[in-house]
Amino acid sequence: GREEDEPTRRQVVKFTLYRVDPAWRSLPRQQREKAKGELCRAVESFGDRLLIRSYSLMGMRGDADFMLWQVGDRLEGIQELATAVFSTAMGPHLSVPYSYLAMTRRSIYVPSTSLRTGSPEEEGGPASHTVLSPGDAGYLFVYPFVKTRAWYKLSKDERQRMMDEHIGIGRKYPSVKLNTTYSYGLDDQEFVVAFETDEPADFLDLVMELRETEASSYTLSDTPIFSCIAMGLREAGFAVDATGDGQEGLWYAMGNDYDVIILDLMLPGMDGLEILKKLRAKDRQNPVLILTAKDTLQDRVTGLDLGADDHLVKPFEFSELLARLRALTRRRYQHKHPRIQIEDLRIDLTEQRVWRGRHELQLTPREYALLEYLAMRAGQTVSG
Fold this sequence. Notes:
Elements: E1 12-20, H1 29-44, E2 51-56, E3 66-72, H2 75-86, E4 94-103, E5 139-147, H3 149-153, H4 156-170, E6 177-182, E7 191-197, H5 200-210, E8 219-221, E9 226-230, H6 246-255, E10 261-264, H7 272-281, E11 288-292, H8 297-305, E12 310-313, H9 318-332, E13 339-342, E14 345-348, E15 353-356, E16 359-361, H10 365-376
Parallel strand pairs: 10-11, 11-12
Antiparallel strand pairs: 1-3, 1-4, 2-3, 2-9, 5-7, 5-8, 5-9, 6-7, 13-14, 14-15, 15-16
Helix pairs in contact: 6-7
GO molecular function, one term: metal ion binding
Domain Response regulatory: 215-329
Keywords: DNA-binding, Heme, Iron, Metal-binding
């Protein structure tokens, strides 16, 4: 049969933007930290059902504070997460000013071998892109999109001609990855577009250039626009040095005593395996976690033979990455179990909770991170 008739996996996609009641900030610190902890644990508990990315809008807009980008196979998973979020101690202090529901599907305007582009109606890649794979870019730009009725009265050939112009412009901006999802009949908009990039200026230039295309005159609505900043390891209490260049990564790794080193196999300049080989040749025994887009036996064997301690296949759940980092850190400091006991002080490394005797201590993320750092190194001299 024709390609468009072949069965494909379709996903449900949800962009939920939350606003925190300003009065919440006047609550006692311990109450706020407890509520935030409940919220984080509730979201992380869905890691086996949904792919979830979190973003901050603090300082970007006045009507939303953070966003959850959720991808799953069933509408029920999205609904269950929403229920869990509002059932936490944080729930009464949250509202949802914006919410966009969509699904993935193949684009009718480009062949399945197309490269990703900047077109709001082009999915940005092969047919397999009916399965979204959010990356680790630092920024995400999201907005709902509606075409005019006049657009749908045009012939398919006429629309394809206009879309070709869009596609050509999008290919000029390889630093911007587009994820197009479809909302016909599911929500008020027709599409939701989400652009991932590490270069906001490139996204700005792309949108400016798209405004001048013929197809742009058939846009009915493409607002509001949400500029989102990815939240990740730093917000989880880890101190992080990051680079996208292999040579620079080796320099960092040789010059610092990291608890864990994360290596991507596809780094430019010097690939992750070469960095690992050089580290072990210099007898640097820091735990190494390898990130790879391939999950073959040979890849795993090669990495482990060269001295890697663990590996993770992309795309992955952020909660799994955190769990693996915590496990490698415990292993390095000889804490095989996810709990540390020092006299009457008890630390649960998995839940990130602390007790002194029978009383649970309410710590800020920074305070907890400092306590865990010192507890991991009990008996050692630590300098700041």
